[in-house]
Amino acid sequence: MNTDRLIKNITDQIVEAQLKLGYAKETVRLYFPLSSLNVILGVEILDAKQMLEQLQETEALQTSGLGSLKISAKGERFEISVPADGVEYVHKSVVVSPFLVDIIALFQSHHHCTIEEICRVFAAHNENYVCEKMPEGADFDFAIYFPDKEPDEYYYCIKAEMDHTIYHRFTKEDYQELL
Question: What is the pLDDT of residues 160-176, one digit of tens each?
Answer without folding.
Answer: 988 899 999 999 999 99
